Every structure is written in structure tokens, then in C-alpha cells.
Amino acid sequence: ASASSASQEFVELTNTNVQLVDLSGYQLQYFSAQPKDFIKPSRSISLQGSVAAGQHYLLASNGYLDDTADQHFSATLAATGGRLKLVRGSEELDVVGWGTASQAHGQAAEAPTAGDSLVRQRAKNGEYSNSGNNRTDFRLNSQDSAASNVSEQAPIWLSELLPDPASPVSDAVGEFVELYNPGPQAVHLAGYTLLV
Asked: Residue 72 pLDDT > 90, yes or no?
């Protein structure tokens, strides 16, 4: 939930494939932390549309992130603990459990406080962590915005710089700094600062 309202929730999915994914038959299933039935979810959201290669699909609670969300749902995620499952038919594709959740992958990720989100960690090469342990794969992100999470996750490297060009080129016209994005998708640089 956001810092301003417990009903402002979002879930962001990423297509790590090199081709478009049609979401027909995909569901996002929510289970309470200690459900009586581990097979039947408390809530099930049938996904719609498609996700291009390397792109994100944003689900947000009704009335939240209306300008950017691909799909909306009724807010029901418990901050203290729960489990989300991404499935296609009977195939389980991914699971994240947090807080007091039972049946997370490995240990449950830390429960986020108001305004925090859980973000899947990324390696230096840009690949998402998928160790089979939610505590290892996810970390807390204190930014209260789905849009900021996308760019916050993306690694940007300083790849080359020229602080002192050879004469006769002056520093004023010859210096440069080069940034490198090793990830598979574009990174919006709004909010980044180069400190010199």
C-alpha cells in the first residue's frame, strides 16, 4: 500500500522473454498468509492483453495509477503477510510470499510497511534474481510509486569518461561521460543525477 492509503496497491509483472507474451489464460492469485485452503485462492485476477518483450505490465488497485496501469483490481493485499502466485492454467510460473506467509518460495520476503514495495533484485548483468527463496530474491523499496520502481531497479553503469582531453581540444568542449544500460529494456533517466 502507498504511504497515503492502504487501498493504493500495485503489482508489476515483467516479460523477460525475447518475444511478446499473450496473457490469455494467465491469472494472478492471492492467498492470505495462513489460508485454510492452499489450492483455492482468496482472490483471482484474470490477466488481459499482452506484454511486449522486456516490458512491464502494471496492475493497480481501482482508482490508483489510472494513467499508467494496464489493468485494475480491488485492493485486498495484506501488508503483514500474503502470497501471490502467477499461473497459466495449472502451471505455476512464479510465487512471492511476504511477512507471515506460509508456502512462500523458501523464506518469505520481509513485510513492507506503508509506502514500501517489494522489488525483485537484479544482478549486475540486469537479470532478475530467481533463487527460489523470496527473502533472497526480493528487497524492500521505500519509493512510493510504481513508475519509480521500474527505473530504480535498472542498473546504469558509468562505462567511460574523458576528464582531460588532449590539446588542442579544451576541457570545455572535449570532456564526456558515457553511461551504459546492461538491461534488456529502456531506462527512463528522470530522477537520476550525475554528481561531479
From this structure: yes
pTM, to two decimals: 0.73
Q: 60: exposed, middle or buried (C-beta count within 10 Å: 0-12, 13-18, 19+)? A: buried
CA distance 18 to 82: 31
- The single residue listed with the C-alpha cell 505490465 is 57
DSSP 55-116: -EEEEEETTSSTTT-SEEE-----SSEEEEEEEETTEEEEEEEEET-SS-SSSPBPPP-TT-
Cα of 166 vs its chain's centroid, Å = 44
Other C-beta atoms within 10 Å of 154: how many?
A: 19
Distance in angstroms (rounded) separating the CA atoms of residues 12 and 10: 7
C-alpha cell of residue 39: 489450492
Nearest to 192 by CA among 128, 10, 181: 181
Say if residues 32 and 103 touch (Cβ distance below 8 Å).
no
Grid cell 538491461 in the structure block, residue: 183
Q: Which range has the worst mean pLDDT, 21-25, 44-48, 109-113, 178-182?
A: 178-182
